[in-house]
Structures are given as structure tokens and as C-alpha cells.
Amino acid sequence: MIIQPMTITAPTQPAQTISGIAELHHLGVIRATGAEAGTFLQGQLTQDVINMGLDTAHLAAFCNAKGRMQASFVVFKHINNDGAQEFLLVCSADILAQTLKRLSMFVMRAKVKLSDASADVVLCGLMGHAAKNMTGAIDSGAAHVYVHWSKHDFEGQNAVFLYPGAGVDRVLWCAPVGTPPPAGQVLPLSVWNWLEVRSGIAMVTQPIFEAFVPQMLNYESVGGVNFKKGCYPGQEVVARSQFRGTLKRRAYIVQGLADMAIGQEVFHSSDAEQPCGLVAACAANPSGGFDAIVSMQTSAALDGQLTLGSSTGQALTLLPLPYPLLEDI
User: Fold this and answer.
1) What does 24-40 look like in DSSP terms, one character per residue?
2) What pLDDT score does 10 carry?
3) Where does the chain show beta strands of DSSP type E?
4) What is the pLDDT of residue 135?
5) Cα dihedral sign for 203, 207, 213, 216?
């Protein structure tokens, strides 16, 4: 299902007044079905998916043996048309095919089938009042309660409540192809991408494939890592980074005047030769300039000047994170 084109303009008003819907055509969906789908995913992802209810979604990562993230997902359980439970894993479309291939290598004799379900569903991002109104559609007359990583199902549709961005509520809406989209002004994808950046949560895309362990993108602080579940690829590295106090890189939000690109290096005034970080996500700010999530050395966030691309590149301003960082254990 394609949202019909209409005149689209990026908002210039304060972020808190943003309200609308954007089709998330940059994302795709992997479907996991079968009697052992939950057990299989439990052994591959950084999250506890077996104990996940139908009213919950999770941020999760798929790592290599060295703990480096090969993909990240918003994962949730779904009831299909046959009444059976299945798992849907929403990820960046540019890494979906390779991720599906890599995951399939571990299936072996497990009773699970993995497939690309991107053509079967439509994904939309609801922002502001459009996101808040979704609660009314789910439960008419209910008071609005915004809890991130909660999920609500209604009439075959799934609504996942995400972390807000720039103070704006956000909902990931997933429904079968042909389902009319929720009501709301159609906004450009760039607005959603900006709110994603300002939420402080970067999803893995091709330019940062295997660039970071989960903590380098703050996944342990936003519900993306469960340290009590069983093993998964890279689990020892991820756990050791957390429990031995060796976290030297974290994700931060920065702002600049010129365009940025995922994968660009960031430098600190204390070292003109070696970069201190890498751009993990970026988007144009509707009010001007560009914002980005940068994974960088924690020492670089303490003082000094950050620049993009080189020591003489454009200056970057560090912005506060919208959530607290979980301390090393």
C-alpha cells in the first residue's frame, strides 16, 4: 500500500507542534515463523524475545562473534491470519537481504522459517498528535499513556510506541498491504529521520555495518540489550564491555550547519590526526542545519572542539542526550 502523494512541506514550527505521518520506505521487515522461531531468535539477538508478550516490542541487535553489530531491529510478536504467532523484525532496508542470509545460516534443523515480508506490510511513522491519536483508535475514550516499547494490536494492525524525539511522540505503525493508513497530515520522511536522530537511537545501516558493539550506540541504556538472557553471537564481548567497566565509546547527539553523512569521521581538538568518532545517523533539522548521532570516545565529550571530517572541518555542537546513560557495572 502506497500513501497517495500530496503537497509535502517540512515544518518550520517548533518541534512540539509537529504532527503527521510518514511512510517509512527506508525500512524492511523480516518474518520468523515456526514452532521454534522464538527459541531461534533468542539465540541470535541481544534481547529476550521468548518472554516478550504481545503488548511489548524490543530494540535488539544481531552481532558477529566479536560483538560488532551486523543489524538492529524493532522486534515484536504478531498474530498472523491463521491465528498463529510469528515474529516481525523491522530493520533498515539496505541491510535486510544480507541480514536475512546471515541469520538463515544459523537455522540448520530448527523449526523456523525466515523470509522477507517487506512486500506484505506497510510501515508508517506517526508523529506528535497523530501518534497520540493512535491510542484513541486502539481503545476509544482511553486516557493517553505513552510508554516506549509498548505495542498495541487492533484490527490486524500493530502500533509500537517508540522513544520520543525532540519531545515529539512517535509510533511505528505496521499493517498488511492495503490497510488504509491512520489519519494525519503526510510529512516528508526527513522529518521522521530527524526525530529519530533526536531520540538518540541509531539503527544499523550499511555504512556502519560491524562498526560498533551495542554499547557504542547506547543500546544498553535504551532497552536494546538484556544481560540476563542466554548466549548469542558476541555475547561475551558485549557482557565484558559492560561488567568490566571498559566502555570508552558512547553515542552522543551533535549539531552542525552543513550536511553530514553516515560513516563520516569526527575529530576532536586534542588530536588533529586521529578521529575520535563516527557519524551513526544524521538528518536535516527542519529549523536549519543538521543533527547527527555520533559514536565517539567518552573523553571527547568532556571538553574541547568537535569537527566533522577533519580537524579543520565544520564545527559541531554537542547536544544533551534525551535519556540517562546506564553506568558501567
Assistant:
1) -TTEEEEEEESTTHHHH
2) 38
3) 20-23, 27-33, 57-63, 69-79, 85-92, 113-116, 121-127, 151-154, 157-165, 168-176, 249-256, 265-268, 277-284, 290-297, 306-308, 315-319
4) 65
5) negative
Q: Residue holding cell 508523529?
A: 127
Q: What is the pLDDT of residue 5?
A: 30
Q: Output the nine-digit C-alpha cell for 13.
A: 514550527
CA dist list (Å): 218 to 120, 203, 221, 325:
32, 11, 5, 7
DSSP label of 323? S
* Separation between Cα atoms, residue 222 and residue 226, nearest integer Å: 11
Against a cut of 0.85, is the pTM above it?
A: yes
- The pLDDT value recorded for residue 7 is 31
Q: How many CB atoms lie within 10 A of CB 160?
A: 22
| CA angle, residues 161, 167, 170, in degrees to nearest 5 | 25
Determine how many CB atoms are found less than 10 A away from the CB of residue 49: 27
> Would the CA dihedral through 239, 244, 248, 250 be positive or negative?
positive
* pLDDT, averaged in runs of 10, over the chain (329 residues): 31 69 98 96 96 95 97 94 90 98 93 97 95 67 68 91 95 96 93 98 98 96 93 92 78 96 98 97 96 97 96 97 81
Residue 274, Cβ density class (10 Å: 0-12 exposed, 13-18 middle, ≥19 buried): exposed
Residue indicated by cell numbers 527542519: 286
pLDDT of residue 246: 65
Give CA–CA dist 214/224, Å, rounded: 8
Taking residue 13's Cβ as centre, other Cβ atoms within 10 Å add up to 10
